[in-house]
Design brief:
With about 325 residues, the chain is of the alpha/beta class. It has ten helices and 14 strands. It has helices at about 25-35, 50-65, 135-145, 165-175, 185-190, 195-205, 245-260, 265-275, 275-295, 305-310; strands at about 1-5, 10-15, 20-25, 40-45, 45-50, 70-75, 80-85, 90-95, 120-125, 150-155, 180-185, 210-215, 220-225, 230.
């Protein structure tokens, strides 16, 4: 089982006529949705807003088989994001976050999480680096790591929302994680004066066994200490938009890696022991899953059958 913790966001997607279509989103929620569609048992830990947007987010995840027993029905409103796309389908976002539900985690709400039977726990994006809840989320990650759960992290930077404590939270999450997936755009924001490969190598020294850097149409690269870089191209598809692309990539990557890792083996040791060919297979699985998502408007991840068909095409 995979446990995903983080925000749900109502993406207000601009349509060609200028109207806004509200669609449930949020990076961690999207990853949970994608894992479920790929046939992986997944639990989502989220704080659902007390409004129609929270109700829609909850319904979408439940309808796709995501377990929400550890989630919270919050008193605060949902976070909103206006998503616009350029001529190439690349999405950008403007957020309404003050006083919203996603950043208000308490220690009591996450007590006992992740639940027994969890093989991997993933968190990402704004809930991982926005106080006051970020410190609670990071304590849960550290507890999961001590229990030998695979800890996965994607900083998924939203520059306009970065606060004075954000960098410290991000650095702590990287040091706890066994697997870090990050986009080249995020690296450019976090360390603008550093080459992405150099940054990935430095992050490996902080604790992760595997750092994966995605670069949109340029594909993805995997880094491990003392090993060759593993490169894979992106899927050759016609892009509708990139909403949910990185989140689906993460789901495909986690799904593939968990199929390869032996249960009972500590995550760092397991990731280190994988062959380059196995890492390449995991990256190709993730890229194929993401490639299907970008051909569809909004975050609409593939099913396991669709992914198998794409991998064997």
């Amino acid at each position: 089982m995979i446990t995903v913790c983080g925000e749900t966001v109502a993406d207000l997607i601009e349509l060609p006529d200028g109207t806004l279509n509200p669609v449930p989103g949020g990076s961690p929620a999207n990853t949970a949705l994608a894992c479920a569609r790929l046939g992986v048992p997944v639990t989502f830990l989220g704080r659902f807003g007390s409004d129609v947007f929270g109700e829609r987010a909850r319904a979408r995840l439940l309808d796709n088989g995501v377990d929400l027993t550890g989630s919270v029905q919050a008193d605060e409103p949902s976070t909103l994001a206006v998503a616009t796309t350029d001529d190439e389908g690349h999405a950008s976002y403007a957020f309404w976050t003050i006083g919203t539900a996603d950043w208000q985690w308490t220690a009591e709400e996450l007590r006992g999480q992740p639940a027994a039977g969890t093989r991997a726990v993933h968190t990402a994006s704004v809930a991982s680096w926005t106080p006051p809840g970020a410190s609670v989320v990071l304590r849960m990650l550290a507890d999961a790591a001590r229990r030998d759960c695979l800890v996965s992290y994607d900083p998924n930077i939203r520059p306009a929302l970065l606060g004075p404590q954000s960098t410290a939270f991000i650095e702590e999450a990287i040091s706890v994680a066994h697997l870090v997936k990050v986009s080249d755009e995020d690296l450019a924001t976090l360390e603008p004066d550093s080459d992405p490969e150099d940054t990935a190598r430095r992050w490996l020294e902080r604790g992760p066994a595997l750092v994966v850097v995605t670069a949109g149409a340029e594909g993805a690269r995997a880094f491990r200490a003392g090993r060759d870089v593993v490169d894979v191209p992106s899927a050759d598809v016609v892009v509708a938009d990139t909403i949910g692309a990185g989140d689906t990539f993460t789901a495909g990557l986690l799904t593939a890696l968990l199929d390869m890792l032996a249960e009972g083996v500590p995550p760092s040791a397991g990731l280190t022991a994988l062959s380059d060919a196995q890492v390449e297979t995991a990256l190709r699985t993730a890229a194929a899953a993401s490639g299907i998502t970008v051909t569809r408007p909004g975050c609409d991840p593939p099913t396991a059958a669709e992914l198998r068909a794409a991998l064997h095409d």
